[in-house]
Queue: 4 jobs
Job 1
Amino acid sequence: MKNLPTSSPFLPLPDGIVIAAIHESLNSIEVHIACRKACAACPLCGQLSERVHGHYVRTVADLPCGGRRVILALTVRKFVCGRPTCLQKIFTERLLDLVQSYARKTNRLREALVALGLATSAEVSERLAPALGMLVSASTLLRRLREVACPPPLSVRILGVDDWSWKKGQTYGTILVDLELRKPIELLADRKEETLTAWLLTHPEIEVISRDRGGEYAAAARKGAPQAQQIADKFHLLKNLRDGLKELMARKQKVLPEVEEVSSDGVPRLTQGKQQASALSEAPQSQEPEKDWRSMSKEPRRSSAGARSPSAAQSRSQIARANRLSRYEAVRALHQQLVSEREIALRLNMSRNTVHKFLVSESFPERSRRPSPGSILDPYKPYILDRWKAGCWNGTQLLEEIKKLGYTGSDALFRLFITSVRKHHQAAGTSAELSLDAEGAKVSGPVDPPSQPCLKRRLSPARARLSVHQSGGQA
């Protein structure tokens, strides 16, 4: 321990506070300090007192020194107030130039932590502070940041007004933004007309107010800033356009074109599932070796709803390929107009690598399909097809047979495969031969399913409005 009669230039202290002792360790420095002023003022009545009642030690964190934490052990004195009428009989001396009352950090450490939090964030500051010789939690730093008062704007020329949510669906306030600086300047507690009018009256320099379609904001702008021009922001302009188009399309729905829609195969699939569940429920549940399996017709079952439409996965794949082909053609067309790759990527909102890939390809690059990883059912698929060709059409019986051969997979996996076998058999329309592909993963038939007539339905106003909006955005 070293006794120091005066303060150190490496640890500046206010007048009247001196260093009494210093204790050093590997990670911290503990500095004992005390106030040597002869008197102190009562915080309640302001009366100066020289009568010391007692003292205690107060621990305060300070700015780090050389990467080590600095802890101030501050000896604080208690005084007796000399005014008889004062309610504060005993008070503690205040050292507001160094530390606030009841604070555990000095003023300069709090300012440094607030600056760190404003530059980064509370969570990042909590992880970064120990490396700088400071300790602070994210919640504590957030409380300090909330105490920071932003200076009011001196002048606002173009003001943006919109609502924001304190608690979504229940409580809303008003946010004011300086659109020239692109910074929020004020948060109002509600979105009432009187609140916004009172704020606008204090800023007569406002020339333009950009607001949403709220009637209270419009009335507040007329009363609080009659000299300002009211405009709608981009979002609400587009929303007005969409609403207007939808209303127009609703009035003119009879002249809208008819579009082709693919009928859903959900009802046949549900019907087939019920039939399979019925077949499984009718199968005997006894554990005897001989079972009386239900005989099924050789003719493929057909749904009452007619032939099946393409699956949803195939439909999505075709739509994705069509969209990709249209983007490929758009890239090639812009390239023929001597537009650079960078500009093409910006216009079409694509990556430059994709644009370059489309340009160097002589034809449309198809996406290669990844090989199937296979399943636990693959070794038993040839046996299932052989039994199917032999006339065994009962799925429950086939499942029981492959389980005896060693199949340990789920029933759902088998049902998925047997459904694909039925689908290809139904598509063929005959008991023609079925085979597996090269990987043994899918069933292929001799003919493709017949093309289905597309249903035509009048285009709805919402879809018509969306189509017009998208075409306008691309133009």
Job 2
Amino acid sequence: MAAVYTKKTRHIDKVLEDARSATAHGGQLIVEVLAREFGLWEKLRACPLLDPRKDKSRGFSPEAIVAQIVFSFCSGGVSLSDAGRLGGDKALGELLGMDRWAEETTIGEWLRGQNEAGLRELWGIAREFVGWVIERAKPGRVRRGGELEVFFDDTQIEVSGKYFEGVGVNYEGARAYSWQTLWVGPFLAEAEWGPGNREVSASLGSLLESTASLWEEDAKAGKARFYADSGSSAGKYLNLLDERGWNWSVSYNKWTDVLERLAGEMGEDQWSEPQEATGRNGEPILEQYGWVRHLPGQDCQRAQTFAVVRFKNRDGGDLMWRYAWVVGGGSGQKSRLHEPEAAREVFAAHRLKGAKEQGFHQLLGDMDLHHPPCLSNLANEVYYAIGALSFNLLMAVKVLYLADDQQGWTVRSIIRFWLTVPVKISSHAHRRKARIFVPKATLRWWRLFIQEHYPKRKPGRPPKDPPLVEPTAG
């Protein structure tokens, strides 16, 4: 029998209680376990360059400040103010071993007290964490088709106001920073900050060098694939990508006059069979694929291979063919240059770059990293590095702990539906107990997680360890 469901008003008695013993962010225990097993807090504590205090006997240590920013990001916070507001969550502090939270001004002072050497140490720890997770994850969760994907991109972080340090006026006439990033698998492995008017691939070489330990072995074995957009299509950048053993592809939409002439001279037998397809605007088109060899500029060390697609409106609206190009290489590609159909596969593989761009959009959008919090250039760069570390922790929660059908979850979904669970802390007979109220569907997962990462204590006075936590069906 069909039923109609409507919005109703429920008459339920409301009772207000002091929330000092409860928190809505109990799922941060998962982030804490992950960070602790990697040794994140110890590694940060061992970095003297991250500690600007003159008097080390007072104040907040570096790992305490970084932990507060990380836990703020991982619980949905998007600003220094949100990080400072954790001070009102006493139960979360007790749950995570934070005796006291820093105020917003203290966090800002710590960020402004950083230096370039400390920033590089912070990124070194982030890269080490990425490698640690990749080693432990199921291959299918960090690799696609057996290949470790490496992705380079640059984004513009626009700001308003005249007092931000280090900004530049970009091609759109806006004051902006340039954040150039290198991704390995689903993780942001390294980034460099600069003015918005710098060359869009200026940091490609240095980022490849600093992250080589993560992908070089796979590249030599032919099990890595590199993607980039057209900003990396100049000859000097193609030289950096060539001869590394990996499969690589770069969008190419500049300096195409010679390429179009060469494509126009190709015989019909050099093109694949025409096939019906859908254009970018949803219009029906006919398309054919092929290969072109060309030396793109004097600074390129050798002629490159270009996969080309020519297309026109299927209903006869176009008199001339239009073209699109992808330049790239790899051991598998070299043996198939006589096959026009293989060029189609290059375009299909390069379109996977869109999934990597989506990960970048999650980082910027779900964590609101479109808004630098400080006027100081270096302070913003450090803040964004911690944002990237927080993003990697959330991605690690997904690839290491969640089920196969949850691997498509976004950062926002992980925070909202997995990490936002209520916890109440109580005390009895010298023992502190945290009761975690979780959905019944996840109760078994939580029980196994607690058993593995929080073994039951022996009788007697409790040691100074993380608290015993017990999941309760909510």
Job 3
Amino acid sequence: MGEFELIRHYFAAAPCAQGGDGVVRSIGDDCALLALPAGEQLAVSTDTLVAGVHFPEASDAFLLGQRALAVSASDLAAMGATPQAFTLALTLPSASETWLAEFARGLQSMAQSCSLALVGGDTTRGPLSLTLTVFGRVPVGKALLRSGAQVGDLLCVGGELGDAAGALPLVLGQRETTPEISAALLARYWSPQPQLALGQALRGRASAALDISDGLLADCGHIARASQVALQIELARIPLSAALRAFAGEEQARLCALGGGDDYRLAFTLQPDLLAQLQADWPEVRVIGRVLAGSGVQLLDAAGQPIEPPRGGYQHF
């Protein structure tokens, strides 16, 4: 199968490639054309996933298609952006029709869930890697940034943490567990759900925000540096799922949440008087700490005493 036949058959013909809100021209020309409403800005983010680095070589193609787009779409959630479109640059060792059909099906599933239209990309031969660029729109001056946290703000997260990191022994075939626990943890790894609606609800509320991709400690460090403040995290308040606790035990579950990464939940800072209404609309939101004068990330144990944070967070180099 040739390159252009591959594109036409598996991607250009997909439902998610048939245009959408703000898509003037999709696949078929040298560039896609996107239109923005007056008073809105374009939010753009790119992620590359490489076989053997970000996912196992023999990953299920359907699950990989879901995960690849979810990872990128989560960056739009972190900015409070409304999803609009995405491109896919796909490098393949060979053009397996079975693999391509399943990958395209997974991609379509997540594109539909996130309201994203496929508007272009590229294909080439080589070691398996996926590069996705997502486009969203946000009202001028309303984008969520990392740099606005204020002393006295609460530090919040958008739900339970650590499940994806806890699932790694299952993904790699190193351990087994009950079907119920396995299904819960693997779903968080392979099908993370970008918190797009929460991100949009935080516009005008959150003083700083990002998505947790490299681990809670590392990502909170980004907010602390950008905002020139200190973030204090109370270990006992970090939300953990029953499945993760049962599979990994309490101590290891907390380590997964602190440094494991791949959560794709939002972490954000918020004035205390805004919390009650936000939790009424989003009950999964949890307070895990607060913003202080100073620098860096401080961790408190169950007794409220400072402890040395474990070294954590994913780094490529």
Job 4
Amino acid sequence: MRAESPAPASLLQAFVHNFLGHAPNGYKLAVAGFLVLNPLVVWFGGVYGHTIAGWLLLVEFIFTLAMALKCYPLQPGGLLALEAVLIGLTTPESVYSETTDAVPVILLLIFMVAGIFFLRDLLLFIFTRILLGLRSQLALSLIFCATAALLSAFLDALTVLAIVITVGAGFYQVFHRFASGKPPDAEHQFDSDSEVHESHRSDLDAFRAFLRGLMMHAAIGTALGGVMTQVGEPQNLLIAKHAGWNFAEFFVRVAPVSVPVLIVGLATCAIVDRLRWFGYGTPLPAAVRKVLKEYARIEAAKRTAREVAALVVQALAAILLVVALGLHLAEVGLIGLMVIVLSTAFAGVTDEPRLGEAFKSALPFTALLVVFFAIVAVIHDQHLFEPLVHAVLELEGKSQVAMLYVANGVLSAISDNVFVATIYITEVKAALLEGAISPEQFDDLAVAINTGTNIPSIATPNGQAAFLFLLTSVLAPLIRLSYGRMLWMALPYTVAMTATGLLAVIYLL
């Protein structure tokens, strides 16, 4: 029997190793400590035990969001949510109620993101033409930023940035293979420069700097456009649902803040690019442009009639998408489902594996969003935010909306803007239903919540899902785009856009 004793220890080690996978040991210990601490606080905390445990749970969940680069928040956040139900901080009924209230947001994430997946070839075609058709670095940066903003106003910001990343990664791979002396279809290690010829190393470094600037301009563009409409970001749709705003009304309500921020954002783009501040402004090397244009010419020559027909179908579907959103013909998620049907039925996409691939990027975040709602249910059931919201509501005049803008901005930058917006809009809506604020006050506060969660959150990759997607993409390490470099490159935009938004909230609402 003693000879078999190592087996349980080995099995125990396997369980420990499997817990949260490849996350650092310190992170695993922290999450395990949270799971042990919370029930102890509930059981031995006396009359304030549930309230203290609720606040601890909230801080712990924000911690999992802030550490998203170490471990995707669904698993640790989900464990915290499950424990919250088990120890009585909320109930399954409350979680279900919060989730059903957000069905439009869930439909948006599931169907709209998947629908845009089937417009990918069209969007790739557009961005490729922009990248290779302009020689002015300043014009290229402005158009990339503005195009990303325009697309993000009607599509999902994460999806738009995913398209831009795909374009950037594709072009990087083309030149890296060329610089390494490899034929176009050869197997190649893109994450290693060991085979890059010395004569091409300086061009490769400049190309990396060029792509870093372009990716960050595009990322900022998704934030500029994403704040303007109800479909630009997931939380926008939730805010619109609580406020009862359709697509056009949402745009008009937010415009006094979003339009000045857009102007200042584009002006910031021009300034940092022209002056080459904060890592921006490196032009596309002539040698790289020559290689990429030749590659694009060869690819265009290979395009078949079926592929051209598919592009036409995608263009028509995109036009119909914009019209349907503008006229609010149906819930946004259902419009996304329409795009899926039309862009696949008339493009020959009928096999299940290709259809399933479109849903891969959205479903993990959709599941995480439901975990968000479990945490929101805890906040409601334990009345955690009532003192904070009441303190804001007791302020008078513009100080009220200004404080809400600032509070949402700070929390969004360190955690996640969807989570923060969900908490605040539900609490403010409750205050409206209780008669604590007027409908006019509610509209101003809803605008402050929307702009506060969308604009200052660009300060860190944690704040916006699209930024986090860029940081964790296959392209980021190739072009040397680290967490610290993203913070630095986002800084001028953060200062200019956040200050503009605050002034607009105070003086233009």
